Amino acid sequence: MDGRLPLTSAGIFMALLISACSPSDEKRQVSLEEKTAQFEKSLDAIEDPKLKDAVAELGGSLLLLERAQLKLDSKPVETEYGEDALAVLKHYPTPQALVDTYINGLFVLHKDSSSDYLTDLQPVFPFNFSIPAAFLFPHGLQWQSVTLSNKRVIAFQPEWSETDPGIQLSPSSSNVTNPDDLTVTYPFIEGLDVDIKNQPQPVSLQGTVEVIAPRRLYSFDLTKKDIGQTRTNDNLSVTLVKLGDNYAEIEFSNSEPPAPEIAETPLNPLIVQARDATGQFLSRSGSINENAAQIAFYQKQLAKLQQQKLWSESLEKQLNEEQRTFEKQQKRHYSKVYFNGTIETLEVSLLDFSGVTVTRKDLDLPVRRFDRHTTAKTIQPLSLPVVVYDDNAPTWLKGATLTPEQLKKGVRITQSVEDPSAARVEFTHLRSFNDELLGSSFNPGDSPVSFFTEDSSGKRDGSIELPPEAYEVDPLGGTITYDLNLFPQTPAFVVGSIPLFLATVEKQTFDAHQLPKGLELKGNALVVDSKVFPDPDWRFFAKDDSGNYLKEILAVSHDASTEGPALFAVHYFYGQPTRLETYQRTDLATVQYGFEVKLDKADMSSQAQ
């Protein structure tokens, strides 16, 4: 999560405010809370509403920035690995080739809704991105209309209207995880049953897309030896100001101005990645993009605002002019980037927007229907004119060779004692390919659990005799729930074992022209006979001649009837498979995870009352 000023919303910082402060930061925390209380008190004294809003926005942003800095600085250095943010670009010869793939790989799915008055449309993009590794280039997508099966065109509107009596096209309000989803809403008539089959269905979606591709991307590889030095490549330069255990402070610049076409477009040309001693990419935990000079400038502007009695256009004009002047003086940009783990090497990449290619395209996309389960006997084509690779597949497939030791090592133990009558100890692990192939036939075996007190030195002491209702073990869920009100003594330790499950997976590789019976390639679609390769036990991955795994677009199960057995499955890929890998679960073993957990202390005062 990035912290940038000026800010208009405190919400983007909330993800940073989840870790507790270490004791060494408690004084800073108290000072910050006092400062926040004083600021809120000063706000109450401002009578002019516009002035009050301006002070609240800028002052609140500065306080949130300080809070974010405190949280990031006090976060313990715990290793967590992430993905290569530039992996997708490395598959294409030029930035423009990536842009063309992004646009030409877009299609629209028809999705059933729970209501006969709604039809959902899901735009499917060839690349999945998450913060901070969002799509690398500035881009915009605007939907304009949907054409129905009766030739009627419904214009897009930014939100659904309760008073509009007609058919509407608006953003979906039911799916916050896919903000690009749309909903076609049919009019509701009180007392009249509506059959969705008789409604005109969406057949195509219209819109426009624009993507700005930079002239180039250049990466600087840096280590501690580079601290204080400026590295330059043509018009791009980077200075490693400081490199801590889990953070890097960087200044960067482009001596050429942005291309005229994007002079007013907000740009973020910096991509910073870090690796630890293993060579793996560390995940990011946040960044602060304002240096001391910038923060001092905003504090000065805040002080000026707090001295005013009334808001005026001349004041607004003066503040904006001061900000423009200050920003023009900043020849170099700053960023302090935090990572989850100890940094060994840095890869600092800059997008060069001194020259750009702006791609604009009108979209008229057919609405396709691919239900997850269908009784249709014919195979629909879904061939798109792009090739997209699955860069997560190699890491994901390491789960096929997981050992009992690796499985145990990945266990994380968390506790909750907020409710003493339902205190919990939970055992979890990061989901892997092993979990995907576990199936549903588990034999957890015994899960013995005992609670112990502690002696005067804090070591484990005697066991506690308990009634059966004092605690409950859910071996499949990996949880122990206990009621402290039923304990004759305060427990300090819990000891026992919890089951983990490990699949034995057999891998085979086939040439696309020599597939075994039950597997057939039809263009970019793999057709799987479900009787020979039943879904719970088998998974399939495809590669092309580059040796990279192709990304799967979607999969469809063709069933004998709505409740009948699966006849065959179809897996569609972005590209033409030339090699196929099959993974079969041949066995399932139970691995007992033995533990001794020091229990968190619960506050029993409220229970006693």
From TrEMBL:
**Is Coiled coil one of the keywords UniProt gives this record?**
yes
Q: Which UniProt keywords apply?
A: Coiled coil
Residues in a coiled coil are: 288-332
Q: Which PROSITE patterns does the record associate with it?
A: PROKAR_LIPOPROTEIN
Q: What protein is this chain from?
A: Lipoprotein
Q: What is the lineage of its organism?
A: Bacteria, Pseudomonadati, Pseudomonadota, Gammaproteobacteria, Pseudomonadales
